[in-house]
Amino acid sequence: MEKSGKLKTIRENHIFSRLYSKGKSYSGRCVVLYCQKNYGGKVTKVGITVSKSRGNAVVRNRIKRRIKESLRLLYPFMKEGYFIVVVARQASVSAAYCELADELYDLLKRAALLGVKE
Description:
Blueprint: H1 13-22, E1 24-27, E2 31-37, E3 45-49, H2 57-74, E4 82-88, H3 97-110
Parallel strand pairs: 3-4
Antiparallel strand pairs: 1-2, 2-4
């Protein structure tokens, strides 16, 4: 079954809280990745958070768009059945898009969330 390019997003606050407290974390210079198995479903869902301390709304939305686009390109290769939350760090404000994309790829690889396509 081929996954579409559209990301499935996490909307419930209790899932974010559970991932922060019980999920496995992987940190990089620009982002921190939290992940946990989704035992209730076979769909991988993604959440993105950017704190208000990172800048005004324009800056925060730019960071979210860059992270979302990087994840959208990697989404077809992600393993199914996980919750993933990406938290932006201060370095992501001045980071280039390719730097964010490379770091997300490395973190997903370290977390063993990238599956191999035949």
